Input
Amino acid sequence: MSLSPLSAAPCRLQVALGSRSYPIHIGPGLLGDPQWLAPHLAGRQVMVVTNETVAPRYLARLKAGLADDLEVHELVLPDGEATKTLESVERIWDALLEAGFNRRCTLIALGGGVIGDMVGFAAACYQRGVAFIQVPTTLLAQVDSSVGGKTGVNHPLGKNMIGAFWQPRAVLIDTDTLTTLPPRELSAGLAEVIKYGLIRDAAFLGWLETAMPALRALDAAALTQAIERSCAIKAEIVAADETEQGVRALLNLGHTFGHAIEAHQGYGAWLHGEAVGAGMLMAAELSARLGWLTPDDVTRVRASLEAAGLPQAAPRAMSAADFLARMRLDKKNVDSRLRLVLLRGLGDACVHDATPPETLEALLDDFPRQP
Ligand code: NAD
Ligand code: GLY
Output
């Protein structure tokens, strides 16, 4: 399947963070065109970090967009969420040191959220911080993880528990890369797209309900529209609250439940977007139990997930106690108080720290499990 060509010029959004502001370029055919990377390189030394799945597809194309007078190195890591570890980040630092990289270097993350999160963290720590550019190649990374500067790795006891806020110099979204993305990964990315509608934009949610078949069929115009709206919402929220002291927490709708699923199942068994999708339905059901959403609202959330090809049930062998044990480690919690992102209405999210424990436990007991 291929994307139909778009005639429009690439869209340019901005993450407004004062002197650390950066552009998000969105469009087809951006990889390989020097005008998008060159302005954001800190010096002559460039390390492209990617993985063994993405490298054969896109590494050569990206390198074609880097000028001949640059000192370009590449590092190809293994693939998978299970490799999102400090050991992998150490491999990046080893490669930088072995190649004699100084502080005026640039790391380029070419791949999905796993590569982006690890490369960003490597850049945040290398010689106390060097430049990096995000070149996301999954829908999930294009609409979420490449924007906003959350970087890091997993710990066996919790997802994304080790990390840093470190903003990229630019985000380069070449929508053509989605043509090779497996359908399951596309669906995982759609979970985060649905999330933006649920937390911030009921009209966008309505548009998604109509556009979902086109999105799953890789319609270029529909995908570009979904990516642009998602990135615009994320950029606005990050600009307002870079380090998640307030409104940015809303971007974690479904994540407290979802991270528990990912960690319990073993990283990689459930895709991040799949776990977030099921988690958003759990959050919607809980919101309904608190009297905030109607049964019809919950039905719409479930239908959106189904249309996107996402699970609407939790893992079979995961008990309420399993959920609670993992959820107590969530980064949003304050003074061991569980803080959940819930919905006051569709398009209107809030952080809530006063859910009665018995209401939460009943939801965790009753929520459907996979057969
Ligand atoms: P991923 O990086 O594992 O990529 C998914 C799969 O697609 C991998 O096998 C990858 O090699 C492959 N792939 C990538 N691009 C491809 C392409 N164009 N064609 C074919 N295959 C391709 O997973 P992801 O869903 O991109 O990201 C999930 C990760 O992102 C999780 O670790 C999650 O915690 C993190 N995340 C971070 C943030 C943040 O703000 N930093 C936000 C959301 C998610
Ligand atoms: N994905 C959540 C955030 O960036 O804050």
